[in-house]
């Protein structure tokens, strides 16, 4: 008869593992850490897994596109600042400063507003729609005062 010193501390069936799919009977709610992993037991004895509320993260190509387009929008913001400041003396002959300043501020904020609006309004849509809207902003928001006059301009 061989006996182990740990035999006195164990019972038959102790080595059984926990159930693979933890579940609660109907009417019970799991709370606390790990409560999202607990399903429910249906009337016929089947276990319904807990619903998953997690959304998948962005893919690597989408992150790259967002980074590149975000950098282009940042450059556009700098271009609108530089181009608008170069255009201000010429614009003062045509319009009052009270008319120039709000549109100048709006032109500076336009790339950031477009990025934010396209991010929020295309949430839940296909990725190609979000990319198309972002690329439309790249085409529409070109800082023309900077492109035509440049930094040194004539």
Written account of the structure:
By secondary structure, the protein is mainly alpha-helical. Helix content is 52%, strand content 5%. It has helices spanning 60-94, 97-121, 127-140, 144-149; strands at 23-24, 39-41, 47-48. A 3-stranded mixed sheet has the order 1-2-3, with no helix packed on it. A hairpin with a 5-residue loop joins strand 2 and strand 3. Helix 1 runs antiparallel to helix 2 and helix 2 packs antiparallel against helix 3. The longest helix has 35 residues, at 60-94. The termini are far apart. The mean pLDDT is 81.
Q: Can you give me a brief rundown of this structure?
A:
The protein is mostly helical and 154 residues long.
List keywords for this structure.
154 residues; mainly alpha; 3-stranded mixed sheet; 4 helices; elongated
Compressed to H and E, one letter per element, the order equals: EEEHHHH
Strand order across the largest sheet: 1-2-3
The low-confidence parts are none
Shape: elongated
**Overall radius of gyration:** 31 Å
Number of helices: 4
Secondary structure class reads mainly alpha
Secondary structure: number of strands: 3
Mean pLDDT: 81
How far apart lie the N and C ends?
105 Å
